[in-house]
Amino acid sequence: MKDKIIAIIIIFLISLAGVCFVHSKIVEKNDIKEYSTALDLYQKEDYKLSYKHFGKVSIFSNIKTPALFRQARCATLLGDTRGAKRNYSLLLFLYPHSQLYVVSEYNLAMLLYDMGDFSARKHFVHIIKYYPDTDYALASEYYVASIDMKSAQKTRFYWRRKDLKHKSLNHFIRYVKLSPDGRFAQQSINKIRQLGIAISHKDSLALADSYYIRGLYPEASKYYADSPINLAWAKYAKNEYKRGNYPVAKSLTENGLKYYSRSVERQDMYDAIDGYVSLYDNKLQTINNLLYIYPKSKCVDYLLYLKAKYSDESQRYQIYKQLYDKYPDSDFSAEALYKTFYSYITKREYDKALLLGHKHLNHFKRSDTAPAVMFWMGKIYEVKNNPTMSKSYYKSTISKYPDSYYSYRAYSKLHKDNDLFIDANITKKPIVFPCENKNEQDMATKLINLGDYDFVSELYKNDKFVQSWIAYKQGKIIYSTILAEKAMKEIYPKPSFEDSRWRLVYPLNYFDYVDKYKGDQDPLIIMSIMREESHFNSEITSPVGAVGLMQLMPATANEIAAAYKLDNNLLNPETNIRLGSLFYSKMKSTLWGKDTYAVMAYNGGMSSVMNWTKNLSYVDIDDFVEKVPYPETQTYVKKVLRSYWCYSNIY
Q: Are 289 and 253 within 8 A, CB to CB?
């Protein structure tokens, strides 16, 4: 009897769970339907009915927070400030950990501000305190300052008015310092003037920087003139170079280097020096004069770097050696050390090169030149018949710098293959929401599927990968790729290629056309060329006249189109890819079937590559790439092959 009762209870609980599951699915389906209807009405500007349908989304739904937020917006657009305040306040109370919290509090504060209710101040201050790294905190600085300024105008008490005016000034100044080219920068400066309070010399420098960044050079000049010369000279000089006021700019640069080089930001000083050197025809003599006159300046390392750049090869590497020996922590030591390291390799002084290579990897592990040094260390040990050490360095290049050109070359060396590898098994993977939080992912995906791009964009305003994903979903593939690329550069160490964010950096845009017209080429090399040439902008035209996805010159396209009796509309993506693939195939077949040469020719021209192969002194393909005399072409080859390597690993 007891067993029967237990069995009945178990069956009842299972049935109840099933009913609850079915009910939850029905509720979820209804929530999505109501949200979709409400959004459609919202886009049709029927805010009253839209408000009603957003309100029907159940409180347990993971799209309830956006529904409340949308209701508040509907109420605002209807002029129902009480309804808007009620919805924002409810959202803040029910969902204190929501990513919508800060934007909701900001919108609530703005409602109060527009109503003339100075209780908005406490919300703006709360945002500044607890969300300091957001755009909302920046804007809040401006509004707190504006509220304090209005309060100062209303108070009858002198001491209170004085206190409020100084508080207002501090917030306006802070806004200009944090956001010199921001939406409220000029308004803040105007209100600072209206306050009638004398600002400090340091604050004057902040206002000058704001004008400079916005390209208002005459206005900037007035404030730089009133700033501390020891802090302002480099920026002031840059401003005067922009204005064409060269005598003042030169004087500022010379006096700044002599007396105040330790008081300013390095990059500002470098820019001032560049402006100074640009005024003279004999660059090397000008740099030598500066080194002679200002031997103790903080920027001697930069002057040495420039001296090496303009010196002939016989002296260049000695200057680089002097630079990294004397200034090991300089911004330019890593590059100087690498170039000296590579010069020893070209002279086959491998032991000296190894010493410098070890030194570089110990001091500059995260520098741009570190992958190159690690790869070439592997090559040195290969020449010295030490396969164990050689493989170790090749493997370290791949593991530590996974998305570099040198990782591709290290992989090729490990697999005894000096050119591209063809793998026909490309797996097309979807571009998904780039966030591991399942609840956020579900909510964002639902909203995107419903077409609510604006809301998700605002929700993840400061997440570049999510912004890239939204842009991709909206068909803005150029912006999407560029944004994801910038975001990935900020990550160290890099995630594995299994991470879905890589697909935003290297998407398979137009892959069906590439695959259709690849011929006997690896489709991913065509993808890589297209990505680097145009970032998938099918309508782009370069300054020299190259057109479309694969940046073909019209004359070249006409020649290929005539030979194969094809259409030559380069703005048509399919046509552009087809002609570009044929052009690439032709170059590759002419250049001994080598992809590296063909990629080089795609940028530098076939005749140039033919001349380089005949006239340059090089050991192998790696040495050849490093000695390509066109810097643009050398960079281009490395970019395309890096993209190829990344595409191969991702797909």
A: no
Residue 435 CB contacts under 8 Å (≥ 6 apart), including other chains: 441, 444, 463, 465, 466
Q: Is 484 exposed, middle or buried (0-12, 13-18, 19+ CB in 10 A)?
A: buried
Predicted confidence (pLDDT) per residue in 8-61, tens digit: 555 544 544 444 444 355 678 899 999 999 999 999 999 999 999 999 999 888
φ, ψ (nearest 5 deg) of residue 552? -90, 140
| CB half-sphere exposure, 111, CA atoms < 13 A | 22
Number of Cβ within 10 Å of residue 37's Cβ equals 16
Query: Strand, helix or coil at 61?
Result: coil
Contact 467, 457 (CB under 8 A): yes
Q: Is 270 helix (H, G, I), strand (E, B) or coil?
A: helix
* CATH number assigned to the domain covering 2-178: 1.25.40.10
Helices (H) and strands (E) in the chain, counts: 35, 0
User: Alpha-carbon dihedral of residues 457, 462, 468, 470, nearest 10 degrees?
Assistant: -10
Average pLDDT along the chain? 92
pLDDT tens per residue, range 174-190: 999 999 999 999 999 99
The closest alpha carbon to 56, from 26, 34, 37, belongs to: 34
Q: Are 401 and 371 in contact (CB under 8 A)?
A: yes
The model carries a pTM of: 0.84
Tell me the C-alpha distance between 610 and 612, whole Å: 6
Contact 467, 483 (CB under 8 A): yes
- Taking only the tens place, the pLDDT of each residue in 324-339 is 999 999 999 999 999 9
The domain 512-650 is placed in CATH, from the list 3.40.30.10, 3.30.365.10, 1.20.1420.30, 1.10.530.10, at 1.10.530.10
Which residues make Cβ contacts (< 8 Å) with residue 248, sequence separation at least 6? 240
> How many other C-beta atoms are found inside a 10 Å radius of the C-beta of residue 625?
20
